[in-house]
Amino acid sequence: MRGRRGVVNAVLALAVAAPPSAAADDTLAARLAQARFSHMQAGAVAPPWRVVGLPGQKFPLTRFDVQAQDDGTVALRIRADASYGNLVFDAGPAQLHPAARLRWRWRLERGLAQSDLRTRDGDDAPLKVCVLFDMPLDGMSFGEQTSLRIARALSGEPLPAATLCYVWDRLLPAGSIVPNVFSARVRYLVAGQGPPRPGQWVPVDRPLAEDFLRAFGHETRSLPPLIALAVGADADNTGGSSLAVVGDLLLVQP
Fold first, then answer.
1. Are 26 and 98 in contact (CB under 8 A)?
2. For a tag site, which of 4, 46, 62, 131 has the least CB within 10 Å?
3. pLDDT, tens digit, 9 for 90 and up, residues 13-55
4. Residue 142: pLDDT band by 50, 70, 90 thresholds?
5. What's the number of domains the chain is made of?
């Protein structure tokens, strides 16, 4: 369980080492398009996507594979079984257009009956798409800055100061934003709500700047560079089992 891991593991679970130079917006969109799940062969997920777990993780990794669907498309299958893990796409850092949107479709086949993002024992999500940002620290409280600097020093990783995860949640209303119970550097936005919908694709189209400022606008007034995208599911706190499918992630910019 992650109940005692603290801020280091909470943020490092989604951390990636960012390249030294910023990528152009159109280059990022093209790179993401080239890494579409629908272009992969069935089986293991191909690079540049990579699986990231917790440091010293003792429970299983969430399983990711590419699978042909009944409608003839190919998509990402995510299976969590008392597990944790994220599938990460290194994005930059890249400065997004203020009107940039992230689009995908997802399907929740089996959810987590005991999940509750407001509690430590229930902090699991059967389906999530996360965006990681290189936010300046000067808008954060002194305590938050200190915690993040310590976490960065201990981990040796450039941990993101702001991670926004779009989640499918069974309890909270759609559009709700709640902080991760382990670290305020991670915020959840409920983009899918309610029980599983087996066999039913649900499209998602999110305005990144608007959503980011809703979640972190009290700490910054602008959209910081994007570091990475991540797709995942976790069931290590509840000990449950979930099954979900995610289609291609598309970055749309004017």
1. no
2. 4
3. 555 444 434 444 568 999 999 999 999 999 999 999 999 988 7
4. confident
5. 1
pTM beyond cutoff 0.85: yes
Q: How many residues does the chain have?
A: 254
Q: For 22, what's the count of Cα atoms within 13 Å in the CB-facing half-sphere? A: 11
Q: How far is CA 24 from CA 45, 198, 219, in A?
A: 25, 38, 25
Would you say residue 235 lies in a domain? yes
Query: Cα 225–173–219 angle (5° rounding)?
Result: 30
Q: What is the rounded CA–CA span in Å between residue 244 and residue 246? A: 7
Q: Is 44 in contact with 66 (CB distance < 8 Å)? A: yes
* Tokens (6 digits) for 70: 């009944």
Please give the radius of gyration of the chain, using alpha carbons only, rounded to the nearest integer. 17
**Cα(31)–Cα(96) distance, integer angstroms:** 14
Burial (0-12, 13-18, 19+ Cβ within 10 Å), 91: buried
Domain extent for 120: 6-252
Phi/psi for 131 (5° steps) reads: -120, 130
DSSP letters for 39-94: GSPSBSPPTT-EEE--TT--SPBPEEEEEE-TTS-EEEEEEEES-B-EEEEEEEEE
Q: Is residue 27, in this structure, part of any structural domain at all?
A: yes
Asked, for residue 199, whether it belongs to a domain, the answer is yes
Query: Residue 1: inside a domain, yes or no?
Result: no
Q: How many CB atoms lie within 10 A of CB 236?
A: 23
Answer whether 49's CB lies under 8 Å from 246's CB. no
Residue 96, judged by CB atoms within 10 A of its CB (0-12, 13-18, 19+), counts as buried
